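Table 4 source record.
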Amino acid sequence: MGKASAPRILLATAWRSYDHVLGLVKYANQAGWHLDLTTYISGELPNSWKGEGIVTLLGERKELTEFIRAMLPSIPTVSMSVNHHGLNIPSVDVDNEQVGKIAAVHFIERDFKNYAFYAHNDWLVSQLRGNSFQKSIEEIGCSCQMMIWSQKKGHNKNTWTNRAKWLKQELSKLPKPLAIFAVDDMHAVELIEACLQLHYKIPEDIAILGVGNSEIFSSSTIIPLSSINIDSHQLGFEAARLLDSLMQQTEPLLQPILFKPLDIKVRRSTDTIATEHPCLVRTIRFMLDNYHTAIGTDEIVEASNMSQTSLYELFKDEFSQSPVRFLANIRLKKAKQLLRESDLKIATISNRCGFGNTVNLFRTFQRTDGISPKQYRQRQFK
């Protein structure tokens, strides 16, 4: 196919998602498309556009929604989100309900009792993620505060200044320690900024989890952001593949194509075990900051500023285990994370997680999981 007859595809988005676009570009190159990025770059909608297909991400720009509506049904269009804003178009997205469940499990494993969900709006993605998170929290007998700005802002304009003021008011009223699931990484960064202004400790007072694993957001703040990892490249690629099939005049799908979230990239913003006791907060923080070194009972007791007997009784009452076993479990979780997310040698992982040698790591896995570290890694990729 020559360049003159190459299918012309418009990328029309209300917000920029670099990772989605990379997947779209990859497919466009393979298919021999001309990908029109004018709107993506400038934000301006073309007055008169002619082409064979559109890929979109709809948002608060009503003029974009109306532009797409005017193109339907003559121009095949695919959304990279289930947020359709009333348009009957096929979509590719992550399984947003599964995202909410994963977020809940992540916080429940860290012994939180107080939970909240934060989103700017109540669009479908927010509903799916937030309601799934809330349901999972309620199933363990806890409640979840739904912090939906669009439902609370009244006549206030939707600006960062107004949202920040409201956020700080809401955060001040909620019990601590608090676990907050944000609908995406951008929302999570807003929460971090509000917490810093209120002088809350992250994650000891408030733990924050985002979605998207965007490098820009996860690394931009002084508190690295934990985030649910989504294969946005694949989503963009599959949206383009779906558009290609529509352009070949296949029947449009009635149900969205959904992909499972990959995993959680655990960073400082949720790296804690929730407790209200100040001495336990201090001791657990010491363990989390030093688990990779050769610390033991003496160092833990010294960090706690308590007697060994009192500290052991406190851990037994709060967690039904000794401080030493608690530290071993921290090391085990860190080792499992590295086994899942890296190709490091098991001996290297053992050293990085404070086990000292592979024998100690092996024995811990046998005691807790009944398998070896190698078998655990293999199971993650089946």
